[in-house]
Amino acid sequence: MSSFLEGIPKECVGLQGLGVKYVEFSCIHPTLGKLYLPFEKFYDPAQVLVWMQERPMVPLWACFLYVVLILVGRAVMSTRPAWSWRRTLAVWNFSLSLFSWIGAFRTAPQLYYNLTSYTLRSNLCDDPAALYGSGSTGLWVQLFILSKFPELIDTFFIVIHKKPLIFLHWYHHITVLLYCWHSYVTTSPSGLFFVVMNYSVHAVMYGYYFLMAMKLRPKWFNPMVVTFMQLSQMFIGVGVTIVAFYYYSHPIEGQACHIRKENNVAAFLMYGSYFYLFAQFFVARYYRVTVKGEAKKKQKKV
């Protein structure tokens, strides 16, 4: 990808701490750049990235502690009445929704630019530090990875409110955290696709949860939309991993492909399992409820 700097003004080319040159998105798009804060522009992710690469046990310990706290919390709450932290939950969901909206608006334009400027192979094979992992976009990719730790707090509200804790919930939180960490420290080229999709889905999902917590959900909004968006994300995720594996399996001489086989296989298994579990959830929540509702109506008529 040696030609990606051609035609780019010198003032828009940055050099991050690991010696990789990149294009600062906010600089080559000055209109959008006016919406960026100074600390976002030309952000250097190298220091945090190296720190993460040197500490592979951090996500494992976080997941272990997560499981332990779930077990302890459920045991403690089993003999106590459910708490009522509706307002706190609303603030939490609103915060995550706002964060996700900002993240989506910061990363989606970069993905669009990359897809319209470079080949799909480049987007799935070239060094992500140059493609999207540095500068303002790199900041929001890094924040996305780190956000998987505070997102574990979602489960805290389920436990204290004594709501059903389904397998999909905790399995999703654990595997996403582990996969995102691994993808980031191994510099996975396809990461931006997943970041944009997840930011976008979470922006809507947590916004919906906020309205539910405040009892303000508009009647016209069908919650099925949220699950459909989640299913679409998983379907596209599987597709991206398949295409990436094809490029990995069919290298072009003289063009390096930064895809890591173990990371790509993990992504395929993860997104595939998510698609199955979310489809199962979709059917159980909406289709079966509809069938039961219709059956009750028929019984009343009889």
UniProtKB/TrEMBL annotation:
InterPro entries in UniProt? ELO_CS, ELO_fam
An example Pfam family from this entry, by short name, is: ELO
Q: Which UniProt keywords apply?
A: Fatty acid biosynthesis, Fatty acid metabolism, Lipid biosynthesis, Lipid metabolism, Membrane, Transferase, Transmembrane, Transmembrane helix
Q: Describe its membrane topology.
A: Multi-pass membrane protein
The UniProt record lists the EC number as 2.3.1.-
**Subcellular localization:** Membrane
Residue spans crossing the bilayer: 58-77, 89-109, 167-185, 191-211, 223-248, 268-287
Give GO terms: molecular function aspect only: transferase activity
One of the record's GO cellular component terms: membrane
Q: What is its main location?
A: membrane
The EC category is: transferase
Task: Give the record's GO biological process terms.
Answer: fatty acid biosynthetic process
Q: Reaction catalysed by this chain? A: an acyl-CoA + malonyl-CoA + H(+) = a 3-oxoacyl-CoA + CO2 + CoA
Family recorded in the similarity comment: Belongs to the ELO family.
What's this protein's name? Elongation of fatty acids protein
